Request: fold
Amino acid sequence: MRISVDSDRCVGAGQCVLSAPEVFDQDAEGLVTALTFAPDPGERDAVRQAVELCPSHAITVHDHGQGHSQGRDHDHGQGREDGRGHDGVVVDDG
Amino acid sequence: MTGAQPRVVDFPLRRPGEPFPPPRYDDYRRHPGLVLSYLPNGNRVWLVTRHEDVRAVLTNKKISSNPDHTGFPNISDTMGVPRQEQIPGWFVGLDSPEHDRFRKALIPEFTVRRVREMRPAIERIVEERIDALLAGGRTADLVADFALPVPSLVISTLLGVPPADREFFESRTRTLVAIRASTDRQRDTATKELLRYINRLVAIKEKWPGNDLISRLLATGTLSAQEMSGVLMLLLIAGHETTANNIALGVVTLLLNPAWVGDGRVVEETLRYHSVADLVSLRVAVEDVEVSGQLIRAGEGIIPLVAAANHDAEVFTCPHAFDPARTERHHVAFGYGVHQCLGQNLVRVEMEIAYRRLFERIPGLELAVPVEELPFKHDGVLCGLHELPVRW
Reply:
């Protein structure tokens, strides 16, 4: 599992830190920052919960084999992405 | 789909004696697309009831929070509450990017870490209020004597209100909320007194900065004096009655479901189950936009009903059951998108400490009236209780 975070989209709700404190943190400005971009497999459920709870789609999971699950797919309530090569990041679940 | 005739329903005012969320919501949710309603002023408003649709509306950039746009659903006419003016700093009524400057300035004040640091202060406030309850006899109104003072005192601590002024601050904030116990004129006076007090507090913090939100916000230099007072009033109003209602309704729910007393998961389930801010996230389309297959025209109002979304059986198993053990946590009680409640983690901590300490220290707590006689707020924007008579 690989993740990326987008502090420009972050609105500081802190749900990621509560869900997966080993993976996410809030920086001095209160915005999301990742403690690791390749969370342990044991963190998978916690990371998924963080993605599900994030109100601003600031976390992306690049999860090889299951398509990718992320919150950035309904920016305008339409036009979902296909999940491949998102943001130019090569995705790999590892 | 967009050509189909929409279903028209009455505006979703709460009715005395009706359970909340009303069974009508289940009916609306089963209807494909959205349902249409009309405000008393004749404006069309689309009601959004499914969880997926509510989240879509609250993240759609063609849909605005700004009440200055034509067609914004001004429900205050309907609910008999004064319209929040568009005062500078009232950033819940702004869209990105204008909104973001305010939110960004405040985010550091509400991080998980900062809220954790506030825990001892919140614990102290809760202990003192329970001391006062116990000193006052064996009966109390838990709304006036506990649920309202706790969040008010937490906010005054957050803002750096000196201890000597906290009683003044608490009494004025209580007047604002007590729509039964106070007159329009008293509430108007209390609002002005609070604004005047806040302006004076800002001036004092400008001269003698302390370790508090106002001083830190001033140090960022990003807000004008006018904006500062608007932001501070917003924090006060957003964090007070909402939290109080969750505390009061949560206590009632725990008295009715005592098996859950002492379980921290009650907090999240109370937020979902009661969804006190059902009619708070008001929106208007600023361009033609399609939601759930329904075309919404620019200038038409939209009301995402968060209580309906939080009781959507597609998302929550047995949604009308109070079940703190449920695993679905993604309710929209705090809204969704860029406006999602900034103080949500503070509220959670207040609720958790309030429930825990209240039942630990007053194990014999019980309702002093039958539950059917509790005065639910059918007449306010927020769901809650006017009074909560208890004894022990």
Observations:
- Residues 7-391 of chain B form a domain with the Cytochrome p450 fold (CATH 1.10.630.10).
